Amino acid sequence: MLRCMTLTHGSPGIVEHPSMSRLPPLTALRAFESAARNRSFTKAAQELFLTQSAISRHVRNLEELFGIPLFYRNHRAVTLTPDGEAYMRDVVDAFARIDLATRRLKFSGRQNVLNLQAFSTFAMYWLIPRLGRFQEINPEIEVRLTASVAPLDFEHSDIHASIRAVAGRVDDGIRSDRLFDYRLIAVGAPSMAAAWPLRVPGDLKNATLLHSLARPEDWGVWLRAVGAQDVPLEGGMKFESSAMAYRAAEQGLGVALAQSFLVQGELANGTLRRIFLHEVASERTYYLMSSPRHCGDPALELFRGWLLDEIATATAQPAAA
């Protein structure tokens, strides 16, 4: 029970402050915060390693303490009351600030560096636009991001994790989290529709193809899949990376093949448009691969959890038309 000091004419003593005697227990607050955030007593129980009845009991104790209901209890689900919604916002924010303060203290005086590696196109078109969110909630972590297409070598480098598109099986000795599939769509600038009327894939013989030297096989795979093998693969314009090819497409230089997951923002804001509805799956899949030497490192585990949440949110959103 919290107590506060009070001074009297005689010796100082400790008396119980009446407003402090009714503060809710921390365990009850944590149970409410998890149940409210997850909108589920079951998920809260799983998250906190408690039973569902324990979560329910903690929430009921809070409601009795406050004298107001925090949840509507339906047969199959629970929903927050207006008072519960308002209380949840403050409590969730409070626990987030406590968590941040704890991490700052934990890493105080220590250099907490996270060395990441990714293909340049993924880094430029997907990761970097979102990386500020990770840095905002983890300011104590110094992120160092490099791009490379060289073979992965955790043994002789200090890389904590690498994000790569892999064909076939991944190494069983490396923790690999699947992120998304590699799916190809033809894209160009909105302005090129008038210059090059493209109604079917075969019309690409009249357009400039933009090739990525990092993915030289993509156009051949895509054209065979859509039945347009008569489109010549020679000529066009060639760029060192897919990111350069995407940028050239945005500038109206021709048609590029883009990984659909990486250009949803550009399709949504209109800097790129899909030329055809065809979407062709590649044999590649994107993974986050963690160095065996660094698994369990707090910075890596925080990034891994954040990245998987971001990927889940992005894949749940409808694809941009």
UniProtKB/TrEMBL annotation:
PROSITE patterns: HTH_LYSR (PS50931). GO terms for biological process: DNA-templated transcription. One of its GO terms (molecular function) is sequence-specific DNA binding. The keyword Transcription regulation applies. InterPro entries: LysR-type_TF_proteobact-type (IPR058163), LysR_HTH_N (IPR000847), LysR_subst-bd (IPR005119), WH-like_DNA-bd_sf (IPR036388), WH_DNA-bd_sf (IPR036390). It comes from the Bacteria. Residues 24-81 form the HTH lysR-type domain. This is HTH lysR-type domain-containing protein. The lineage of its organism: Bacteria, Pseudomonadati, Pseudomonadota, Betaproteobacteria, Burkholderiales.
